[in-house]
């Protein structure tokens, strides 16, 4: 699947030319302050497309199946626990589905490599947030809702040691800080060619250990508050029924 095909698909879902009716879109600042219903309403036609594209990316690697769905669901749970607006919660959910869309440009030999990556291969992997941003940015609804910026910055760290721009603290969009926690938790709970999966409690402890360094402490606190629900979701005991319009 080529990036330009993805852009066309998202644009078609979001409206003619990749835009949304002006009256229905409010630019989201990424800090939870978009309080109107316009952005949430404009996400409705995009959600299923985002979910399908996320699943397509995950399917390229047998170790990451359902990862994007897990990130989307957990991100929405965390955003809701933090008291963010309905519009922001739904934007974070859609961004969770699309956070790794930039991996569409990675060769299978890199994406599926069972051993350590070379420096050149790692440099390619680190480009995926920039590629994802470039794919999503032309789609008006996703740009206005802050989704493109969340994708661009979901590998930034709270201490400024992340990528691609080395942003720190509040300079990292809140949605990206939320997705960073959800992304890491989901990844730790999945097996990899080089390691077994962690238990939920082990992964939760690792996230807590990294609060203030890799992760925003406020997001880590939200995960602690919702840990029982998250544990049940990952164990398959509860369907959170998340997503725009659900």
How would you summarize the topology of this molecule?
Elements lengths: L2 H12 L23 H21 L8 H15 L4 H13 L9 H4 L7 H7 L2 H9 L3 H5 L2 H7 L20 H16 L10 H10 L7 H9 L1 H8 L12
Helix pairs in contact: 1-2, 2-4, 3-4, 3-10, 4-9, 4-10, 7-9, 9-10, 10-11
Structure in words:
This protein is an all-alpha fold and 246 residues long. The chain has one domain (29-234): Hypothetical protein af1432 (Orthogonal Bundle), CATH 1.10.3210. The protein is built from 13 helices and no strands. It has helices spanning 3-14, 38-58, 67-81, 86-98, 108-111, 119-125, 128-136, 140-144, 147-153, 174-189, 200-209, 217-225, 227-234. It is globular, with a radius of gyration of 17 Å.
Summed up, the domain count is 1
- Helical stretch tally: 13
Name the poorly predicted regions.
21-27
On the 0-100 scale, what is the average pLDDT? 84
Strand % is under 5%
Largest sheet: none
């Amino acid at each position: 699947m080529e990036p330009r095909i993805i852009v066309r698909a998202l644009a078609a879902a979001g409206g003619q030319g990749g835009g949304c009716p002006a009256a229905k879109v409010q630019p989201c600042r990424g800090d939870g302050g978009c309080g109107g219903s316009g952005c949430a309403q404009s996400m409705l036609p995009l959600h299923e497309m985002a979910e399908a594209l996320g699943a397509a990316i995950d399917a390229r690697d047998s170790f990451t199946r359902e990862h994007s769905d897990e990130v989307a669901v957990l991100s929405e749970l965390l955003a809701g626990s933090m008291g963010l607006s309905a519009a922001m919660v739904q934007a974070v959910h859609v961004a969770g589905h699309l956070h790794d869309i930039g991996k569409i440009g990675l060769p299978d030999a890199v994406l599926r490599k069972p051993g350590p990556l070379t420096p050149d291969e790692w440099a390619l992997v680190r480009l995926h947030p920039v590629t994802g941003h470039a794919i999503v940015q032309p789609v008006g609804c996703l740009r206005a809702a802050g989704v493109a910026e969340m994708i661009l910055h979901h590998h930034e760290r709270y201490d400024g040691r992340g990528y691609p721009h080395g942003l720190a603290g509040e300079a990292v969009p809140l949605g990206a800080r939320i997705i960073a926690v959800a992304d890491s938790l989901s990844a730790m709970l999945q097996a990899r060619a080089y390691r077994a999966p962690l238990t939920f409690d082990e992964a939760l402890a690792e996230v807590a250990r990294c609060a203030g360094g890799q992760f925003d402490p406020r997001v880590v606190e939200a995960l602690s508050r919702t840990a029982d629900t998250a544990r049940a979701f990952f164990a398959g005991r509860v369907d959170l029924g998340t997503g725009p319009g659900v």
